[in-house]
Each structure stands twice: as C-alpha cells, then as structure tokens.
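In this supplementary section we document a worked example of the pipeline. Step one takes a protein sequence of length 380 as its only input; no multiple sequence alignment statistics are reported here. Step two produces a three-dimensional model, which step three serialises into structure tokens for compact storage. The input and output of this example are shown verbatim.
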Amino acid sequence: MDTEKVTMLRYRGSKLSKVKKIDIFPKIEETFKEKSSVGGTFSVFSFILITWLVFLEINYYLDSKFVFKFSPDTDFDAKLKINVDITVAMPCSNLGADILDSTNQNAYKFGSLEEEDTWFELAPNQQIYFDNKKHFNSYLREEYHAVKDLLWKSSFSTMFRHMPERSTYPNRPHDACRIHGSLILNKVSGNFHITAGKSLNLPRGHIHISAFMSERDYNFSHRIDKFSFGDPSPGIVHPLEGDELISHTGMTLFNYFIEVVPTNVKTFLASVNTYQYSVKELNRPIDHDKGSHGMPGIFFKYDMSALKVTVSQERDHLGMFLARLCSIIGGIYVCSGFVNSLVQFCYNFAMCNWFSNPNEKQEVQKNNFKTIPDVVPVNL
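The serialised model returned by step three reads:
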C-alpha cells in the first residue's frame, strides 16, 4: 500500500525581522520613562515657542514679495493711453489743446478732449479735496521707497476719485477752463500742449490763432487733478497729480519733460499692462526784449523708454516652506531636550540625587525606612 506524502510549509519568520536590526531609532518602554515637573515645564514652553514660530513662518510665507525685472520693450504695435484733467485760468474760448507725436500725424486723429467752462477758484469742499490729494501725493513721491511694498500689495489704484461738485457757485463769469478726457495715442514720443488760441489744422501740422488776444488775456496758471498714462494699477504713483502752479506774469512758458516707462504688473489674480513716468519741470517768462523767446503755454513733452519694467508677485516655494517648518519643530525639540537634560543634571548634582533610575530610588527608600519589630514587654 502506497503511503501518501504530505508536504507542509515551514514558517521561516518575517523578512521585516532583519530590518529591525538596523533600526537607528530605539524605543523605550513606558516603565523606564521618568517624568518630572522640570520636564513638563520645558514641554509647555517648547510647545508655546513652536506654535508662535510656526505662526510667524506661515505669515511670512503668505506675505508675498514683488520682484522688479527690466527688459527691452519690443511691443512696438501697442497704443499709449493718456488721461488728462487740467484746469487753466483762462476761458475755453481763448485756449486750444492738441497733441502731436513724432510721426507728424494729424492732431485730430487721436480725438479731442472735453472743454468745460468753470472758475479757477475752488469751492470750500473742492479745496479740501485738492489739498488732501496734494499732500498725499507729495508724501508718496518723497517716501515711495519706504511704502512701495504696501502700495503694490494694496488693491486700491488711487485713494482719490473725481473732484466733487461745487458746494457754492461764484456770482461772476467763468474765468477758467477744465480740459479733461482720455486719448489713445501712438506709442512714440510726442507733445501735448495747451496754449492760447484755437488750433487750425494744416496739411503739415497746425497753428493756434491768437491774433485778437492781448498780453493781459494770458494766464497759464493751472491745476493738475489727473495726468497719467495707461490703465490704473496699484503701486504706481503719478507725480504730476495734485500740482498747482500760479503764474505771476501772463506770458509764461511751462515745460514738463516726461519719461514714460512701460510697466507690466503680474499679481496672483490679474495681469495689467500700464505705464509709469518720471517728470522734470521748467518754467520761464517770455520776454522778447530780454531774449527769452518762445510761445507761452503749457507743454507736456513725453518720450518712451526703451526698457520695460515687469513687476511680478512671488512667494517662496512650498518645499522650502515645509522644510523650514520641519527645521523649526525639530530644532526646538532637540534643543529643549538638551537644555532639559542639563537642568536635570544640575538639579541632581545640587540635591545630591545620583539615582536616575526610579527603581533604584524605590529600593533605597525601602532600605532606609525598614520597620523595627515590636518589643513585647515582659512582666518580672
């Protein structure tokens, strides 16, 4: 009779048992752990410190920064938008506002600005508005580098909107002209000017007819409520807004030399192509007898910069953020453990407590407090 062979699988042990031999993180049983009030105090302070530093690190990560980069401007087909709101101390019938660029195109191709008869003297509510705007814009020009991060991170492109309506109206004829509006220009250098006389278009340019005006009719005192290029964007300060110049002589030439810089603002939520500018101002009286020639008026001569500024909002990489969090938690844990051990050693040294094992302490206490057997009295 054939015997049936039975094969059985033998358990050779888990392969993970070999991995346990190379464990560099030894485990301590709960019975060998000693807890003390000093260690508990250090644990509380360590937890508070870790929480505080983690909170600061999260705020630092969420607080983005702006990086400025310069590159050649190669967008030659783009258009230049100019926004104007200027009040001149002359009636609109005696003024003309035109724009000519370096391509010598027709001045009327770009459109025309609106002209509105008004009074140069502001009403009380308007004067308060303009003084606040003047003071605020002057502060931004002087302290721009100190507050630039706040400006770029803010969501407000301007703190002031349009000038409010008059609260009072003077009882006299209009003595000023408000010129305002927006025009789309070629992205080249040009000259926006306001001078005496209405303009007359010619095949090769234009002229201003002011033959019926005398010198006492000239007064180019002006107030600039708005003068900017491109669309509004947070972080950009327009230097000319809030300026007011009073001319003491009628025949005065005001020159503004403007350098326009294309600017691309890239934030986490949007991207805006706009312009910022710097300006230099020069004014002089016109006196042909003294050799000071020229045409009285207000001239804004702007030129395009060959470089473009790209402002991008950035923050650190997520991996760097997590690495810093781990280093904070691990560093404080290790340092607090080292300080705790040092304090415990100093405490034991001062108290002459050389037994670090709780079992040894209990054994010593038992030996020091052995009970003495009772003595039974014997009656003699």
